[in-house]
Structure formats: structure tokens, C-alpha cells
Design goal:
By secondary structure, the protein is an alpha/beta fold. Helices cover 48% and strands 13% of the residues. The chain has a 5-stranded parallel beta sheet with strand order 2-3-7-1-8, sandwiched between helices. A 4-stranded mixed beta sheet has the order 9-10-11-12. It has a 3-stranded antiparallel beta sheet with strand order 5-4-6.
């Protein structure tokens, strides 16, 4: 006999959902609000009453679904003379239960933690030693970061609360992101969390209240993802309205939305139809580690986010400046990684000579520290990939990365290939815009000189920003926001950049605004 799985489902729930009338849905919602139960149970009761049948209100939706599956199995047995295996039956039930959960669940997102409870602690055994094989000179930071990720498995929390909220601080380019990435990948490999990746949110993208819809979409995507770790950066550049929502998630586990939303084509849109199935009226932090990374000290975070936020943090982890020995050890680890990638992805037999490694270490100058080393290895891999695309005669050959006259080269036999020539020219639109702004300043009053100095600071930041550089379209807002922040910082100190606060003579104690609030470009 032919058996339709949908018929069994309909029989269990009193008809297809699409066949319910608006009146039946409204009545079911009223009953659900008054008497409890699921919407489907109340819909089944309403539909049964109107069709002259008696609804079985004593059974849950899942119990009815189990009965439907049992009837389906019995019918199949009669038709085929065979019996469904337990695994096949369980798979069918799991599939249908998953569909029900997808349709009616109010949970925020996918499961992010695979192992929970005290048993998860066993997965942390030996983790510190594994990370220290790749991260050097940060033993105390590694210890505290691991404790921060272990904390949710030994402490009680409400169902909506984040697994933990962590503040990572310390000098620039000391391995904060590098260590976090390694830790997350290792936890995923040990089946403690699901995803080996970190979900990053740059809060400087939301400097005004007009970016609220963009922020809500981005934070919702982060909370919905299977990534257990959400990394927030540049909190000091974010508008207060967005910071308030993040603070609510950290301190209470949820934040209420002023409107109700539905998902439409992967985007959050305002729910204008009260009959919409699943609406979103709040976000919850359940199942997520919230990590905030900055070079700012803890008191700066407290000044922006408030004392309740800081008090709700589970852990504060701080890096220290790396010495030359630690950076050299990390470079050796990255060297081995580069050789392995070159063989696996490009079929290159690669070696790095001592001069090239000295060139790598030299990239720590100009305050770049560890970031200079890591970025140079990344650029080298890009250059090797480009070489593989251009040259089909090099796979399986021995290649050496060397350095001549201060420039890195690839040596293949008697041939020497300029490494920098394999990379595309870096986009310089932002730097050019900043230089144009500097050249446009004519009369060099004291105020003009201060603005020029800030523009030079922006140029220096842009050179070191790598992938965080602003586009030509966004550079105007970048310059404006930078000057506004500098002016606000100066006003808090009582003078421009702290100057003239107590200088004797004319103008002592006066504050001349660095920026008049109008767009400067």
C-alpha cells in the first residue's frame, strides 16, 4: 500500500497548518494564553471542536507525533511484510522533531557547546601545554584564558546567560587574537565546542544611532551562528545605544527589542503582520562566550560600559609585551606551518634560510611586534600561491626563501624571483585621502597644526591596520569620528590633549575645540 508521511502528521495534529482559518488561529492563541500548552495543541482542539470531534487535550504534540509514527510503521509492516529497524524509526522521529523545533522554537541559535557539565573539564587536560608549544612568553595569560573558558562548566547560570564574558587586554600585537584563535581551534578539535572559528564584530562600524538596524542584523547573525565565541573589538568607537544592548546581554543574558522582527530572506525585518509565525522580540546570550579585546585598561572599559558591565565579567586576561626570544620562537612555529602549507596546497618543497628569518624578525619594528611577523608570513603565502598560478614548472622542485639586499626572494636553482613582485599593489586610497587632507590645510595656526598631527596619527594607524583599513567611501567618516574622539578626550582632561590646563599667563585653563563638529572632508 502507498503510505503518505504527511497524512500521518495531519492525522496526529488535526489537519495541515495552512488549512487553519484566521479565526481558528486567533482562538488558539487566546486559549494558549489562558490555559497554556502549545499552539498546535490548541489549534488541534479548536479544529476538532468545529468539526464535531473531541480533541485529546491530555496528550502533548510529541506524544501525538509518536502515535502517528507508530501507525505509519504498522501500516508499512502490513504493506511490505517487514519491520522498520529501531535506527530507521528513530531517524524518522528525529527528523520530524527537528522540523517541529525549527518551526516553533524560540531559542536563539544553533548548539555551540558539544560537551557540557563536569565531563567537559576532562577535555581541558593538557590544553595549556599544547598552546604553549605555539604561543611563547604569555604563560600567565594562557593560564587565565583557559580558566575563563572552563568557568561555565563549574558555575551555575540562568538559561539565557552567556557561557562567560571575558575581557582581553594588553599591549598591541602581543598575541591576544593569535592565542584566542589557537585556543578555540583546539577546543573544537577536542569536541568541547562545535566551531573552530571565532565570530568577530568590529564595533567601530556602528558610530551613530543610524547604524542600529545594521547592528541588530549583525548581532543576531552572531548569536544565531554555530560559533561559540563572539569577539567584540573597538568598543570605544561604538554608539552608546548599541553598547547598551551588548551590556544588557552581558549583565542580564537578554536584551529586549523595541520592535518585533521576523526572518525574511536571511534578514531581520519588522513584523507588520500579527499572524506571522515566529517573531523575535529579544536576543539572548545563551550558549556564547562574549570576548571583548582591546589595548585599553579595565578602567577605560568601565568608563565606557559602566560598573555593572565590568562587575558582570567573568574573567579579565592581560597579555604582556613580548621579548625578542618569544617572537623568535613564534616565528619558528610559523615557519614550519608555512612549509607544511606550501607542500600540501602548492606542492612546493620549501625551505627558509637564515637571512629570510632575520628579515621576518625585522618586521617587528615600528611598534608592530608579533603582528608584523604574522602578517609577513601571510603575505609570503599569498606570493607563493600566485607563483603557483603563474608557473606550472615549479611543483615538486626545491625552492628556497632567501633575502638579498634587504628584499625577500624565491630561489629555484639559478633563478631568483622577487617575492614582492608576486603581490598586488596594496590599496592606498585611504592614505591618499589623508595626505590630500593634510595638503589642503593652508594656514598653520596652532589648531591647524594639532589637526595635522592627528592626520599623521591616522596615517600611521592605517599603515598598520592591514585588513581593517577603511575604504575610500568610508574614509571621510573615519577622519571625522577620529577628530571627534580626540576632541572629547581632550575636553575631559581640561585642555586640548591635556595642554594648557594649568599654564600661567593669558589663556590659562581655556580649551579651544580641536574640531567644530562639521565634516572636515
Amino acid at each position: 500500500m502507498d503510505y503518505n508521511l504527511g497524512d500521518a502528521f495531519n492525522k496526529a495534529f488535526g489537519g495541515k497548518r495552512a488549512q487553519y482559518s484566521v479565526e481558528e488561529i486567533d482562538e488558539a492563541k487566546k486559549r494558549q494564553k489562558k490555559n497554556g500548552g502549545t499552539l498546535m495543541d490548541n489549534l488541534a482542539a479548536v479544529a476538532a471542536e468545529r468539526s464535531g470531534k473531541k480533541a485529546d487535550g491530555s496528550k502533548s504534540s510529541i506524544e501525538k507525533l509518536d502515535e502517528a509514527i507508530s501507525r505509519m510503521s504498522a501500516d508499512l509492516d502490513k504493506a511490505s511484510g517487514s519491520t522498520l529497524s529501531t535506527s530507521e524509526l528513530n531517524a524518522t522521529i528525529s527528523s520530524l522533531n527537528a522540523n517541529i523545533e525549527k518551526d516553533f522554537s524560540t531559542g536563539m541559535g544553533e548548539q555551540t557547546v558539544i560537551t557540557d557539565g563536569a565531563s567537559a573539564l576532562d577535555g581541558f587536560d593538557g590544553l595549556s601545554e599544547v598552546i604553549k608549544e605555539k604561543v611563547y612568553g604569555q604563560d600567565e595569560f594562557i593560564k587565565k584564558l583557559i580558566i575563563a573558558f572552563k568557568r561555565p562548566f563549574v558555575t551555575e547560570r540562568d538559561k539565557d546567560d552567556a557561557l562567560n564574558s571575558i575581557y582581553i587586554t594588553g599591549p598591541s600585537a602581543t598575541g591576544k587574537h593569535y592565542t584566542l584563535d589557537i585556543l578555540v581551534k583546539e577546543l573544537a578539535s577536542r569536541k568541547i565546542i562545535k566551531s573552530p572559528s571565532v565570530y568577530s564584530m568590529d564595533l567601530s562600524l556602528y558610530p551613530t544611532s543610524t547604524e542600529e538596524k545594521l547592528f541588530l542584523q549583525d548581532i543576531y547573525s552572531a548569536l544565531q551562528s554555530d560559533k561559540a565565541v563572539i569577539l567584540f573589538e573597538n568598543f570605544e568607537a561604538c554608539h552608546i545605544s548599541m553598547l547598551t544592548r551588548i551590556s544588557d546581554l552581558v549583565t542580564t543574558g537578554s536584551c529586549k527589542l523595541s520592535d518585533r522582527y521576523i526572518m525574511q530572506n536571511g534578514q531581520l525585518v519588522t513584523a507588520s503582520n500579527v499572524l506571522a509565525g515566529k517573531t523575535i522580540g529579544e536576543f539572548t546570550a545563551s550558549g556564547k562566550y562574549f570576548v571583548f579585546a582591546s589595548t585599553k585598561p579595565l578602567d577605560k572599559l568601565a568608563g565606557v560600559m559602566g560598573a555593572p558591565f565590568v562587575n558582570a565579567l567573568g574573567d579579565v586576561c592581560e597579555t604582556k609585551s613580548l621579548d625578542d626570544e618569544a617572537i623568535a620562537k613564534i616565528a619558528d612555529v610559523e615557519k614550519d606551518t608555512l612549509i607544511e602549507k606550501a607542500k600540501k596546497q602548492l606542492d612546493f618543497n620549501l625551505t627558509l634560510d637564515d637571512d629570510f628569518m632575520k628579515y621576518i624578525i625585522s618586521q617587528t619594528s615600528k611598534g608592530r611586534a608579533l603582528r608584523g611577523v604574522l602578517d609577513t608570513f601571510a603575505e609570503t603565502m599569498k606570493a607563493l600561491a600566485q607563483l603557483r598560478l603563474e608557473r606550472d614548472d615549479l611543483p615538486s622542485k626545491d625552492l628556497t626563501l632567501a633575502c638579498e639586499s634587504g628584499s625577500p626572494v624565491i630561489v629555484s636553482g639559478d633563478e631568483k624571483i622577487d617575492l614582492s613582485g608576486l603581490l598586488p599593489d596594496s590599496y592606498s586610497g585611504e592614505l591618499e585621502s589623508i595626505k590630500e587632507e593634510m595638503d589642503a590645510i593652508g594656514k598653520e595656526t596652532q589648531k591647524d597644526l594639532m589637526i595635522k598631527q592627528q592626520l599623521r596619527n591616522m596615517e600611521g594607524w592605517s599603515r598598520d591596520a592591514g585588513n581593517n583599513r577603511k575604504t575610500r567611501g568610508g574614509v571621510k567618516r573615519f577622519i571625522t569620528n577620529w577628530l571627534i574622539r580626540e576632541q572629547n578626550d581632550a575636553s575631559k582632561k581640561g585642555g586640548r590633549n591635556g595642554a594648557n590646563r594649568s599654564s600661567p599667563g593669558k589663556g590659562a585653563g581655556r580649551y579651544e575645540p580641536l574640531f567644530d563638529g562639521e565634516t572636515v572632508v
